[in-house]
Request: fold
Amino acid sequence: QHRPVIFVHGNTRDASDWNEPGKSVKQRFSDAGYSMQELWAVSYNGKSTKQLPPPSQCRTNTQVNIPDLVSFVNAVATYTGATKVDIVAHSLGVTLVRKMMLESPDLYDRVAHFVAIAGPNHGTTVCRRAWLVWLIGWRDFIGCDEITPGSAWLRNLNGTDGNKEARGPTKYLTIYDGTGADRFYLPWLFFMPIQDQDSPALRGAENHRLPGLLHDELRSDPTATSRYLSFVQQDSAMRRE
Reply:
């Protein structure tokens, strides 16, 4: 009855992010009339490590997970018979979906609506070298090379003057804090202005600020879920070839 919705989690997390007790996004969509056959969530390459101690959790980057996500999206479309799907992604999952679509341009026609929640579209403060040195010492941190503000990888993803940021016909909604309450996107670092607070916004998207919400709250808070549920419900009747 609806386009299938595919949920994509962030770094060190897994598919259970979308069905947490007491704040289940899955339940919110079910209450809105979605069936279990219309709701799908992937754990990157089948790995589920969120419940393990932090040193044992799966830290990854965007690029390595693209083939797995492409396969998952195509499998959901084939299984359901849907010509189009909607995607809701959080944090690192946002750049994963955007890069997947850039590398597989046919998906711009297949993905009707894309919700990008707190994504490092222009980099994240926690990947700035000064932060990393202070937090964990001077050593490589998996995933940060791609999404350091100003990286060549992000410049390729976003294009000149942002011309690749929200390519159609897919419709885009971003959800983010915009004040620095989300520590992944701070306006200041060590008393220096860095202006990362609007990093999740995309040129050409419907950019929606929810000031004061933390990184995970932007995914599961009732105000946020109501906003992006309404967005994906637009013309949501599933059509089959």
